[in-house]
Amino acid sequence: MVKKQVINIIILAVFLTFSYAFSQLYNSRKLNFKGDLELIIGKSSNLPATWVGNDEVAKDIPILVLAGHADSQGLAGAGTSGEAVDKFGLDPMNPEISDELFWNLKLQESIVKLGKMKGLNIRSYVPRIRNIDDPNDPRTNWSVGHKFAKHGGYAIEIHFDAYGKYGMGSGLIPPFFESPNQIDESIASKFGRFPLQFRGGLGAPRRQIRILEIGKLEGTLEKNLRDEKTRQKTIKLLSNEIVHAFLNGII
After folding, report:
1. Residue 171 pairs with which residues in a beta bridge?
2. In 3D, which of 250, 245, 251, 242 has the Cα closest to residue 112?
3. What is the C-alpha to C-alpha distance for residues 144 and 122, in angstroms, rounded to an integer?
């Protein structure tokens, strides 16, 4: 009887040891991820896209970074809630806005802050009103971005794509009526590319605003954003990749 109890204790101890080792390995992989962009954001869009950005841009080109869906909360275009909320029932990051907008705003802020440190002529715009029914209202992302682009600036809107079968993955959607330039090419080289006339031409590209889909809001990307231990590191990694793409695309 005693011998059997000793064996059971040994078996339990071995099981607990392996369980602890596995959890430590899992957590270390999750929390100490390497700066491999594809491992974090997942696959890029596999839609056929053959465009190449060749047009040169000046070193001091004004850059405007917009947070996708910042003016359409409570409307049809509020952005994805993400896999964590929709599929697994977790609480949203902020109950007043979609999780996509929450992360769009965080990344927008980080990109502009880092870009200024690197000497870029970069700024952001955030609408004060979260629900603007008229897409042509002068306060919307589209209106401000269009006006900025018409005056020779480079306007780009940050997005996270829908999770699962609804999303396409990461990639840049170029402007509809303008030849892609070397910044577009630099970003596409890192994140992938969508067709020139994706879905017949979305609202932002029709107004000369690029759209950058960071990746699907799911899996490793969303977990590392939601985990407070990896959140800032993930945002910094993404913003660093985008800012360096800007820098590599200018003369």
Report:
1. 213
2. 242
3. 15
> In sequence order, which residues have a C-beta less than 8 Å from that of residue 90 and are 6 or more positions away?
84, 226
The label of the residue with tokens 């990051």 reads 93
Dump pLDDT digits (tens) for 36-89. 888 899 999 989 999 999 999 999 999 999 999 999 997 777 999 999 999 999
Contacts of 73 (CB under 8 A, 6+ apart): 96, 97, 98, 101, 130, 131
> In one letter, which amino acid is 52?
V
- 9: enclosing H helix or E strand: helix 2-31
Q: What is the rounded CA–CA span in Å between residue 175 and residue 197? A: 9
pLDDT tens digits, 115-174:
999 999 999 999 999 999 898 999 999 999 999 999 999 999 999 999 999 999 999 999
CATH fold, domain 36-249, is: Aminopeptidase (3.40.630)
Q: Which of 115, 242, 114 is nearest to 184 (CA)?
A: 242
Do residues 246 and 210 make contact, with C-beta atoms less than 8 angstroms apart?
Answer: no
pTM listed for this prediction: 0.85
Tell the residue number behind the tokens 């430590």, with chain if given. Answer: 24
